[in-house]
Design goal:
By secondary structure, this protein is mostly beta strands. Strands 2-1-5-6 form a 4-stranded antiparallel sheet, with no helix packed on it. Strands 3-4 form a two-stranded antiparallel ribbon. The two termini are about 20 Å apart.
Length: about 70
């Protein structure tokens, strides 16, 4: 699985690395709820390299499984 990638809230091009990858994330998991909704949960260190860039409404692209690549979460 690749690292989560952070994008601006108004991003439309998800083929780039956006604001950058989040390789120092401690956990990054996607779970599928009973209703089919996907939930992304990430633990990121307060002093991580991109901690200051993680803000409300920004988009994080992450794989949701081996078949569901490049899913986007706000």
């Amino acid at each position: 699985m690749s690292y989560p990638v952070l994008y601006e809230s108004n991003a439309t091009d998800f083929f780039s690395n956006g604001l950058g990858t989040l390789p120092d994330a401690l956990t990054a998991t996607v779970t599928e709820e009973r209703n089919g909704e996907f939930v992304f949960d990430m633990t990121y260190p307060l002093h991580g390299s991109r901690a200051g860039q993680i803000k409300n409404n920004r988009i994080i692209k992450v794989d949701a499984g081996h078949l569901l690549k490049d899913q986007r979460f706000v």
